[in-house]
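Usage example:
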Amino acid sequence: MPQFDVVIIGAGPGGYVAAIRCAQLGLKTACVAGWPTASSLSPLGGTCLNIGCIPSKALLDSSHHFDNIRQHAAVHGINVSGVGLDLDIMLARKDAVVATLTQGIAGLFRKHRVELFRGRGRLQGGNNVTVTDLNGNVSETLHARNIIIATGAEPVSLPQAPVDGQRIVDSTGALSFDEVPARLGVVGAGAIGLELGSVWRRLGSQVVLLEAMDNFLAAADAEIAQEARRTLVKQGLDLRLGARLTGTRVTASGVEVQFERGGKAEVIEFDRLIVAVGRKPHTAGLGAAAAGLQLDDRGRIVVDVACRTNLPQVYAIGDVIAGPMLAHRASEEGVAVAERIAGKVAQVDHALVPWVIYTWPEVAWVGKTEHELKAAGRSIRTGKFRLQANGRARAMEAVDGLVKIVADAATDEVLGVHIFGAAASELIAEAALAMAFSASSEDIARTIHAHPTLAEALHEAALAVDGRALHS
Ligand code: FAD
Ligand code: NAI
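Running the assembly step on the lines above writes:
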């Protein structure tokens, strides 16, 4: 039986990064990677690379170019005519981006001598992991001194809208429509609904988002969420909040969606419907019950602060445990667990996980919202700066949005940074770094920011905490 210091189950951003770090630290490492159903996709990179972060961002970028050329070229004095869409090429480019990156992981595994076993990993007694095919036939049994479970998550399904892969799809189906649906419904106005809704709106769909909650983007700062809502609605996303889905009916011409809103029953017919109402941990086939692995009431693997499960030498990371379902969080946990196995001290600061929603403009935040801090009785000061007064934003024609900094009233420590604006996904890195070093808003205010940059808006928001913004 092959013996390993570490066997990792799952090769998403949690699992593959953990594998590389284990190997870097001199641990004999294997990674068992597969999909729950037959798939032509590489198991390397997991959800993120194959059906999540990367393909969605590839389509967001392509559709942004298309939208920009059609809607915004003229203002720059660029006359464009005959703009057309070749969806096959757009989708093929997305697939090529994914293929390049998954092949890159295969190369990294070879370089670091991580042994890859394709198949489904299953826990067996005595720290063994079997590798099985989709029918449960065992091809290999691996002995592991340590096991890291990184099996990720899968879409939540709704009985009122069963995914058929044709009219009703989940996020994976929505990354590969063979034509632009004229009428597109999306159940759930969360991260996936907003991003994929934006992609297809830019490509020409009439998009209606049906969101159960009454407030939009509840996890974000309320002011930022309100700003984002106004802009996205102005762009053409038809956002219906407080919509309770009651049923769907696939017809010859589309899919009829029944919902209740404000006590009134409504029906809309769409060509396609995306169901994007959250994701749930993936533990099927892992042999969790037989192995005695503890799960919580939502099916997540229970871990302590060091990602240790209740089984000795078995760890779990990423989407399969509680916490934000984000690729960078999974990767950081993978690195930390690898380092702990190698006897090092490692920590992940879960309070400083940045969030980004890649609409245009983008929504990004790190730390606490103003509302959370006030509810906790913290005394705070806020500083805001609108991009309309930022020179670079003007030059770019990207003046929608603002930067907001929330700082402790007494110590001035930055407690949260919230951005709605162009390149917010990049700007948030400065905020996360500042907060990792317990920076005050004064520290950011005293840091020289290059001119003209969007980052100057962060600088100005820091000055605004003390009421001394220069350009507002
Ligand atoms: P996963 O990436 O899900 O990987 C787990 C892998 O393990 C999968 O391949 C799974 O099939 C495999 N597996 C499961 N069970 C077994 C088994 N028994 N044996 C072997 N293999 C198994 N996050 C971001 O941070 N930024 C984004 O922009 C972003 N965009 C997203 C867009 C979409 C459309 C979706 C769906 C998700 C997005 N996410 C994004 C979330 C991100 O993809 C996840 O948080 C991340 O992939 C979690 O990493 P993971 O390693 O925990 O699990
Ligand atoms: P989500 O949790 O972000 O949003 C789901 C939305 O659906 C919520 O607003 C919820 O109120 C709503 N909802 C739930 N049940 C509903 C119902 N029956 N009818 C109508 N609305 C309903 O989940 P989503 O968008 O599916 O994404 C899953 C996860 O994937 C995210 O939470 C995030 O962790 C990750 N992700 C991250 C991205 C990023 O970082 N940019 C992009 C896409 C996904």
